[in-house]
Amino acid sequence: MNKFHTLYFETTRNCNFSCQYCSTGSSKEKKYTDLDFDSVVSKILEPARELGTKFIDFSGGEFLLRKDHIEILKKANELGFIIGVVSNGSTLSDSKLAELKSLLGNNLIISLGINSFDPENKNTRDTETENVIKAIERINKYGIKINMCVTIGEFNKHSFENTVKSIKDLALPFNRIPFVPRNCPAENLMINKESLKEYFHPALRKYFNGQISYVPYMLPPEVYTELTGQDFSEDQIPLNPSVGCWVGSYYSINPEGEVSPCPLFADHVSGGNVMETPLKEILFESELFVKIIDRKNLDGKCGSCRFTNTCGGCRVMSYYKTGNVFAEDPTCFIEDLNDSELKDIENQTISSFKNYLRMNKIKDLLLNEKDRE
């Protein structure tokens, strides 16, 4: 598995929603100029595929509002990407879903956002829970794969476990997205160490269908090596599969072409702009990217922790809480655990990871199938 195997591409800031805490600063009252189709292809899609990127998530704003979204998806499919589309669900009519199915067949995963299965969801997602459920039902009719995205913050710590249980009951995978004040000055809504320890982390450990991206990830590196075969002396980040902090496994490009290690600080931390610098040069030669994938460069406990290679701390939380992307993760609570508590979490993580590996084999089969085409 290559580094930078996944690209999260924010193709537009235009949206038909006005979510109060939107990460990209999108709003239906604002209009933006998008990168043109030729630039998207020549500066992003083709170079990314040549560098070994296998999965691409098209996001926004609302990606499906781009007039050329079908042309972009068609080109990405021709290039051999595994394709994801992040949507608020409102643009996914039956006719649109039929069109996407006809164009991409089984090569499509649609990600929908939901922060809670209660009326509070509308406060942060600008839509009622029932609308998300209806979107799920429509998508299921076409046999299209679904992923759920849950933004976590102080606003949903009490409902989070019920949310991930409800997603599991729907037999769907999910990923958690930490709320950050990227384009919304609401630092008070960011999770803190106490809420992570008491509310979010126990649920994330329990439901392995959301295993792919959370920290602190207390999987002993020797167990990861034994189960996956990856040698951390070659790559210090877990790639087969990716767990913990995904920086180095994925990267993001914002609507203006800035390339960042994570979409959650994409407007603040950049290794360069693809409109000015080749993508290969940004990912493999820029100071930011070269340094951030070398976990020996992490400061404090994140650089010396037993779980550095399997966790890495959350670079986004470090950045927004300290101003330094390499700082130790201030939300990590590992030093507050006694030996017995730590061992229990390790054992739970090992068991959960084994279950995730079995689930992940399906994705690997799809990746290999696309490579043979």
List the helices and strands and how they pair.
Layout (H helix, E strand, L loop, with lengths): L5 E5 L26 H14 L4 E5 L9 H11 L2 E6 L6 H11 L4 E5 L7 H5 L3 H13 L3 E8 L7 H10 L4 E5 L14 H14 L14 H8 L21 E4 L4 E3 L11 E2 L5 H7 L1 H6 L7 H5 L10 H8 L16 H34 L1
Parallel strand pairs: 1-2, 1-7, 2-3, 3-4, 4-5, 5-6
Antiparallel strand pairs: 7-8, 8-9
Description:
The protein has 13 helices and 9 strands. With 373 residues, the chain is α/β, with parallel strands linked by helices. The chain has a 9-stranded mixed beta sheet with strand order 6-5-4-3-2-1-7-8-9. α1 packs parallel to α2. The protein is globular. The relative contact order is 0.12. The mean pLDDT is 93.
What are the key terms here?
373 residues, alpha/beta, 9-stranded mixed β-sheet
Overview in brief:
With 373 residues, the chain is α/β, with parallel strands linked by helices. Helix content is 39%, strand content 12%.
Which of globular, elongated, flat, extended, rod-shaped describes the shape? globular
Query: Helix count, per DSSP?
Result: 13
- Percent helix, as a range, is 25-40%
Strand content: 5-15%
**End-to-end gap:** 18 Å
Low-confidence stretches: none
What characterizes the major β-sheet? 9 strands, mixed
The ordered string of helix (H) and strand (E) elements is EHEHEHEHHEHEHHEEEHHHHH
The value of Rg in angstroms is 19 Å
User: Order of strands across the widest beta sheet?
Assistant: 6-5-4-3-2-1-7-8-9
Mean pLDDT: 93
**Which structural category fits the helices and strands?**
alpha/beta
The total beta strand count reads 9
